[in-house]
From TrEMBL:
Any GO MF annotation of the entry: ribosomal S6-glutamic acid ligase activity
PANTHER family: RIBOSOMAL PROTEIN BS6--L-GLUTAMATE LIGASE (PTHR21621:SF7), RIBOSOMAL PROTEIN S6 MODIFICATION PROTEIN (PTHR21621)
Protein's UniProt name: Probable alpha-L-glutamate ligase
Domain ATP-grasp, chain residue ranges per copy: 269-452
Domain of life: Bacteria
One Pfam assignment: Rimk_N
Family, as annotated: In the C-terminal section; belongs to the RimK family.
Cofactor(s) recorded in Swiss-Prot or TrEMBL: Mg(2+); Mn(2+)
NCBIfam families recorded: PRK10446.1, rimK_fam
One record GO biological process: SOS response
Species for this entry: Roseovarius albus
Keywords of the record: ATP-binding, Ligase, Magnesium, Manganese, Metal-binding, Nucleotide-binding, Protein biosynthesis
Length: 469
């Protein structure tokens, strides 16, 4: 038995209430069995993950007997895998983890094997190696220690709890760039397993009962969260993959609908207008007969003519005169391209502000200045960036814009105009390199704060039946 310096004797009956705080389990009834050497915890959907040098196991638990609607996800490092013989003589290979057990204010580490105890009244069995020297067993009694209550699973404290649980996270990305590497690095630093999945190599099983995502000939494992980094060129297929993860029930940092809307510049501007987000005067028309009226709706030259599929400043043209605007519009129409016409905000002077919104908060902002002679401030086009302090109005505008698309990670680009901030674009896959380098902030860390708080099962509302005891 483990040695202990505690002098206070703990009396245990043959059944006691315990908690396993490391696993996010605040209340559990355990059977005390000194005839068993090893402790066992009820677990199902047991799955290993992580590197072979430091393997982990994750599993789910129904803490309340008869309540299969309440599911607690858990994970822990694997300390061993051993053969265990049950009371009926059956042998089973089980994963062994280590976790702290807490009883009446006292806590100590124990080894636990994982097995399905669905048919047992007690979700946990405490063997003799888990009992400290100062524990005295009263074999004829139950609950010698203070009783807990299953009601704790239905409290706000439980819903907001963040147990020390390793997550399995997928980054949907086709590129080995700074953003992808930072997401992997930061996640692994926090003890999570982060896998980069090439979006175009995913394929789907679409049915009502068992929808799945497959990759390289195998069904992908169950991820706790997905971080979409969908390139503009594969938006339709990429968002279909995100939708499939949503169908399975995986937490996706940015929803498929928000990504789709942000990529369709016409729809994006309509959506921002609906949510009263300030933006430059914008017009759209399909007929070549409407060119003059189209320009008139926006204002006078200079004007911006922007392809609906433009990214990183490509397909964005500054027309300094009305005649130049007509020529650009005619050229785009000749290519059968869809485009917008926008008012040019002269006072911005080739500068814009990128606000990085994470989980409903502006966590960083930078001012981007275009290369000499270029009205576009994109860093991909040689622009420069530096940290900037934004106003309350700019902050509120950025938050309103990200909320319009329901994005938990968004780069909101806005201009400082005489009439207040004007949003140019909402980017659903913003790069991290420029803003982390210019502001010195750990944006990837801020994103994982959100993932860790949301990628967990929330106990559902209690059924209208008698309280479980």
């Amino acid at each position: 038995m483990p040695n202990s310096d505690d002098t206070e004797v703990l009396n245990f009956g043959w059944e006691e209430w315990i908690s396993l705080p490391d696993l996010g389990i605040p209340a559990l009834r355990a059977k005390i069995d000194t005839g068993a050497r090893t402790s066992a915890l009820h677990a199902f959907d047991i799955e290993t993950f992580g590197p072979a040098s430091k393997p982990k196991v994750r599993f789910t638990l129904h803490p309340i007997p008869g309540r299969d609607d309440l599911v607690i996800p858990c994970s822990a490092p694997i300390v061993d895998r051993r053969e265990v013989t049950s009371s009926n003589g059956e042998k089973e290979m089980r994963f062994v983890i280590e976790s702290n057990i807490s009883v009446n204010g006292q806590s100590w580490p124990i080894e636990i094997t994982l097995t399905n105890r669905a048919s047992m009244n007690s979700r946990m069995l405490l063997g003799r190696t888990a009992l400290k020297d100062n524990i005295s067993i009263v074999a004829t009694e139950r609950f010698q220690q203070p009783e807990l209550n299953y009601d704790v699973y239905h409290t706000s404290k439980m819903r907001n709890a963040q147990p020390n649980r390793s997550l399995r996270i997928a980054v949907l990305s086709r590129e080995d760039n700074y953003s992808t590497r930072r997401l992997v690095e930061e996640g692994e630093k926090r003890g999570h397993t982060v896998e980069v999945i090439n979006t175009t190599r995913c394929y789907m099983t679409i049915n009502a009962m068992a929808p799945d995502v497959h990759y390289d000939g195998k069904r992908l494992p169950r991820f706790d969260a997905v971080i979409p980094r969908i390139g503009a060129s594969i938006t339709p297929y990429g968002t279909a993959i995100v939708r499939q993860f949503e169908t399975i029930g995986t937490y996706c940092v940015n929803p498929s609908a928000g990504i789709t809307a942000s990529r369709d510049k016409l729809y994006a501007h309509q959506l921002m207008a609906r949510h009263k987000v300030g933006m430059p005067n914008t017009a759209f028309a399909a007929s070549p007969k409407d060119t003059t009226n189209l320009i008139g709706l926006v204002g006078t030259a200079p004007l911006i003519v922007k392809l609906l599929e433009s990214t990183q400043g490509k397909g964005v043209v500054l027309a300094e005169t009305k005649k130049a605007a007509e020529s650009v519009i005619d050229a785009f129409r000749g290519l059968k391209a869809n485009f917008l016409v926008q008012d040019f905000v002269k006072e911005a002077a080739g500068e814009d502000i990128r606000c990085l919104v994470v989980g409903g908060k502006v966590v960083a902002s930078m001012k981007r200045t275009g290369a000499e002679g270029d009205f576009r401030s994109n860093l991909h086009r040689g622009g420069s960036a530096k940290s900037v302090r934004i106003t309350k109005e700019e902050r509120e505008t950025a938050l309103r814009a990200a909320k319009a698309f329901d994005l938990n990670l968004a780069g909101v680009d806005l201009l400082r105009s005489e009439n207040g901030p004007k949003v140019l674009e909402v980017n659903s896959s913003p790069g991290l390199e420029g803003i982390e380098n210019s502001t010195g902030k750990n944006i990837a860390g801020k994103l994982y704060d959100v993932i860790e708080s949301r990628a967990r099962a929330t106990p559902i509302k209690r059924r209208k039946t008698a309280k479980a005891k």
